[in-house]
Specification:
Layout: H1 20-40, H2 42-56
C-alpha cells in the first residue's frame, strides 16, 4: 500500500523533501534524544504506569468472616 506522505489527513505536518543521508541523521538524533528522555524520566514513567495498572487489577472478594469458603456437606 503506497502512502501519500503529503496527505494532510494522514500526515498533518508538512515536511520538506530530504536526502536519504539527512533523513538518517535526523532520525538518529531523534532516537538519541528520546533515549536520553526515557533514561532521565524512567522513574516517573514507571510510577505513572504502575499507578494505572494497580487500578486495573481485579481484586479478589473479601472473605466473609461468618461464612467459611468450604462447608462440609456431610455435617
Amino acid at each position: 500500500m503506497k502512502m501519500d506522505h503529503q496527505d494532510h489527513e494522514t500526515h498533518p505536518i508538512s515536511l520538506r523533501k530530504l536526502s536519504d543521508e539527512a533523513v538518517v541523521e535526523i532520525r538518529n538524533f531523534i532516537d538519541r534524544v528520546l533515549d536520553q528522555f526515557d533514561v532521565h524520566y524512567a522513574p516517573e514513567a514507571r510510577r505513572f504506569y504502575a499507578d494505572r495498572a494497580a487500578h486495573n487489577m481485579l481484586c479478589p472478594p473479601s472473605p466473609a468472616t461468618s461464612d467459611p469458603p468450604f462447608r462440609n456437606s456431610h455435617a
